[in-house]
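Sanity check

After download, print the first record. It should look like this:
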Amino acid sequence: MLKRFVLFQAVCILGLTYVSAQRKHSTNTIFPSYKGLVMAGYQGWFRAEGDSAHQGFSHYFANEKKVGIDMWPDVSEYPKTYETPFLMPDGKKARLFSSYDRSTVDLHFSWMKSYGVDGVFMQRFIDYARTPASREATAPVLRNALAAASENRRAIAVMYDLSGLKASGEDCSMIIEDWKFLVDQLKVTNQKGVNTYLNENGKPVVAIWGVGFPDRPYNIRDIGLKRLIDFLKNDPVYGGCAVMLGVPAYWRTLEGDAISDPYLHEIIRSADIILPWTVQRFTPLLHNDMDRYRDLLIADMKWSRDNGVKYVPCITPGFSWHNLSTYEFPDDVKPTGSIPRQGGRFYWQQISTAIRSGAEMLYVAMFDEVNEATAIFKGTDVPPVQKGDVKFIDMDGVPSDHYLWLTGEASMMLKGIKPLQVKMPKRENNIH
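Expected structure tokens:
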């Protein structure tokens, strides 16, 4: 009997070793865990007239009256920028960067290194994954990011965004094919140079965002989510991954911004990490709203611990969606700076509240999202001349790198390198 047991153990070990050996992911990463890291979302979707993407000013604006951004980036350090129809206060043409340029991505990752931002989740939308042509067409930014992450020793991971998934006729199977493409062709989990792909418990992290929101056309029971998660976790070649799910803020109670279907909890329990989306759910304009944020985090973390899922709070500098709303929601135009940044105070309130509530990892929304003015990268206090209904937020007089610096401070406090400060820290020198 003992011999049979020993033989059984040996077969199991050999089987696990064989499966591990067949997988294409490197286990030799300098980021073996999300714990202690402050990661940001990275859109990387901005194009400019004259760049090699040939898509005009995609995700910036269609014309001077149809503008899709509420925050103007500080482009003074970009090696390559592009002239726009907008005018600066001095009469010169305003300029913008293109995410498609390698120099742009290199600059962004060098900022991450310089300020201590630990890394980013690269957003990958359903539209990117639909066909072999769309996969390859959207690959350059990710290729450049992988190289820049390695060079600057910043963590990097892929986040699939289900936005755009139709109500019928398609499902998550296209993500399975896209993940195979990223692993085989882009070597995302086995990049050249220093491997910096984010792992959790020795497994590459793959995020799926958009699970459980009631305003989406798809039903989470009908889009093959379980099959996708099973593939990412257990496929003998492309699996062995840790799955992170982006869900609504009120996922636990199945109310508010979440669907009421308890199937959402079943899906969450099959994941490794949960990321509740709290952008636009809290504001500094309400008295003691951080108490509500704290109570939500504490209850969420308890549920997560009880159900064996790790929890990452979402933090954001503020929110503004005025310009896009003028043509997307003409009957419900949003005010500029509807959730004000307050010079970083709102951002820091979320950071300190999350850490005091027991957070071991943080997700920042976002690194470069100027559409909703949630970006932490360098923005300008002097945007182009504003005409008609087009308006841009300013930086409240703080330096353009203020939010990068605050994020670096948050990372050090999360790691215990510096003691946590409840109030927003002050810089000794405003020039980095």
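If your output differs, re-run the checksum step. Summary of this record's structure: The radius of gyration is 22 Å.
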